[in-house]
């Protein structure tokens, strides 16, 4: 009976120790964050035309109109995936984009790491203006 209790106590103790070290390992991983907003400025790198810095106004909008918008800078590198997104949520279409497609006033969603280096930039394609017919 004593051996069974000792075995149970050691198993529980080992489990706690193992879970604590796994939690510390999980804290060390850098999480990616997603940000959606409107491009306010694009600074292209003079040496490399496909790299640069995006300044994006984040906050406010339909979901939280009382939030104060903040401007955040994201670094776009050659490893960044640029995608043009069109269509509604149910039938969204993605096509490749270039750095030249990043212009002030465009809506974007950016996936970035903790160092604000963009890994993926999704550019929303512009909506066409529908002219109302006056009768």
Question: Short description, anyone?
Answer:
The chain has 135 residues and is of the alpha+beta class.
For the residues shown, what is the average pLDDT? 78
Low-confidence stretches: 129-135
Order of helices and strands: HEEEEEEE
Helix % is 10-25%
Taken as a percent bin, the fraction of beta residues is: 35-45%
Count of helical stretches: 1
What's the CATH first level of the largest domain?
A: Mainly Beta
CATH topology of the largest domain: OB fold (Dihydrolipoamide Acetyltransferase, E2P)
Question: Order of strands in the sheet with the most strands?
Answer: 3-2-1-6-7-4-5
Total number of distinct structural domains = 2
Oligomer: single chain
Query: What's the number of extended β-strand segments?
Result: 7
Radius of gyration from CA coordinates? 24 Å
Ends distance:
93 Å
Query: SS-based structural class?
Result: alpha+beta
The gross shape turns out to be elongated
Question: Which CATH architecture of the largest domain would you pick?
Answer: Beta Barrel
Summarize the structure in words.
- A hairpin with a 6-residue loop joins strand 4 and strand 5 (93-96).
- 20% of the residues lie in helices and 36% in strands.
- It is α+β, with helices and mostly antiparallel strands and 135 residues long.
- The chain has a seven-stranded mixed β-sheet with strand order 3-2-1-6-7-4-5, with no helix packed on it.
Secondary structure: elements and pairs:
Elements: H1 2-28, E1 33-44, E2 52-58, E3 70-76, E4 81-86, E5 93-96, E6 107-112, E7 118-124
